[in-house]
Design brief:
Elements lengths: L1 E2 L2 E22 L6 E22 L4 E14 L8 E2 L6 E11 L2 E10 L18 E11 L2 E8 L7 E3 L2 E2 L4 E8 L2
């Protein structure tokens, strides 16, 4: 859909997978190893939505993305239906970029719901929902381009994967000269 000085785009996808003998990592009974095991039946289904809009004389671009994930080991024999481990049910990303002349600034905010099932934690360790902000700025003049990226700007500490912390705040400055 297009309006004078404004553009918008919406994308959507639905996915559904039924699997037999699905290979999945699992923790050994002694808790010391990760082994790959076959699950008799699994279902991975979900919805992926994204929207992008540009306005203010093409200076401001905003985006919103949402993923809903339904990942289950299906019931069989004596095993009840249960969530597949290490998968968030909800993932949301909000983004905005603003450009004015040779300068631009932007940020992305990501939210991920807590895993429904994690095999490496004891029940007393809380499962957190990561909330991460990345910020960026750039300057371009002729052949010179300077970019600054601050990842995890709020220094939110969380597990990227079980028992492994995601990177803390990092700043990257890059300078490029294209001739």
């Amino acid at each position: 859909m297009a309006l004078p000085g404004r553009t918008a785009r919406i994308d959507a996808a639905v996915f559904w997978t039924e699997a037999e003998n699905y290979i999945e990592p699992a923790v050994s009974s002694d808790g010391l190893q990760i082994q790959f095991q076959n699950l008799q039946r699994a279902r991975i289904a979900g919805l992926d939505l994204s929207a992008t809009a540009t306005t203010l004389a093409n200076r401001l671009t905003t985006s919103l993305a949402y993923t809903f994930l339904y990942a289950r080991e299906l019931a069989h024999d004596t095993v009840p239906e249960r969530p597949l481990a290490f998968r968030p049910k909800h993932l949301v990303t909000l983004g905005a970029d603003y450009a004015l002349g040779p300068f631009s600034v932007g940020a992305d905010f990501r939210y991920m719901s807590a895993y429904e099932r994690v095999e490496l934690y004891s029940p007393v360790i809380p499962l957190l929902s990561p909330k991460v902000l990345d910020a960026r700025a750039s300057f371009t003049r002729g052949a010179l381009e300077v970019r600054l990226l601050v990842a995890n700007a709020l220094n939110y500490l969380y597990n990227l994967v079980p028992q492994t912390l995601a990177p803390a705040r990092t700043a990257t400055l890059s300078v490029a000269w294209s001739h």
